[in-house]
Amino acid sequence: MAGVTPPFIPLRLPCFPLSFRLIPPKAPHHIPPDSPQGGLSFPCGLLYACGMYPALEHRSHAIVLLLGPAALYQAGLHHWLARQACAQGVHVIDCGNHFNAYLLARLIRRQTHLLEAALARVQVARTFTCYQAVSQLAETPPQDAPGLIMGLLASFYDENISLPEGLRLLEIVQGHLHRLSQQAPLIVQAAHPPANAAARAVYPEYLAENASLVLHPAAAPSVHQPNLF
Predict the structure, then answer these.
(1) Helix (H, G, I), strand (E, B) or coil at 50
(2) How many CB atoms lie within 10 A of CB 11?
(3) Strand 63-67 and strand 9-10: pairing?
(4) What DSSP state is assigned to residue 178?
(5) Is 0.85 topped by the overall pTM?
(6) CB 84: neighbour CB atoms within 10 A?
(7) Cβ(179)–Cβ(60) under 8 Å?
(8) pLDDT tens digits along 15-54
(9) What share of the chain is helix, strand, coil (3-state, %, to 5)?
(10) Domain boundaries in the chain?
(11) How many C-alpha atoms does 16 have within 13 Å on its Cβ side?
(12) What's domain 46-217's superfamily in CATH?
């Protein structure tokens, strides 16, 4: 089924506050994140409200990489999707079965009573293998509306996909990411590899090197427990 690509379809109806650090990618004018002008820390579980996405909505050539488990970004991304659905629209490629249509519909209802019209502005395609992901990206044209790719690396960690093959496919993927970001920003969420696939840590590193912005959960501060006696 590697050659079968699910089509884009328009949608129809069917805590903790987290701390993140915005890290500029390596570049000639890179500012270290620990410097006073470096990474921006913000405690916010709803990523769209942190002020980053509004600044990128009209910026082309921007690839925003969200590194870490999809669960950390689930609420924030769906709030952002609802916001886009009520505006110019958005296209989504779900590579890890993370898109939640029911949650999105609930969030849209909080912003507008025109639910069906908003959902029609959300295009969704799902892929289940890394080959399908590559094919879907290849068949997706650049659009004026922002794009979101959820769980991009999920199927790349399949033990049946060799490391050289994964890197070959990822190089193709990177070319499509740049192409799709020519007219509107592209947000890519990707998790780190599981413990049994540690050698594939080069995958997210490769994506990070080619991203405009990299966002990942900040390390939780250590807590010192004083002695009782």
Answers:
(1) helix
(2) 21
(3) unpaired
(4) H
(5) no
(6) 23
(7) no
(8) 333 333 444 444 422 323 333 333 323 323 334 434 444 4
(9) 40, 15, 45
(10) 46-217
(11) 7
(12) P-loop containing nucleotide triphosphate hydrolases (3.40.50.300)
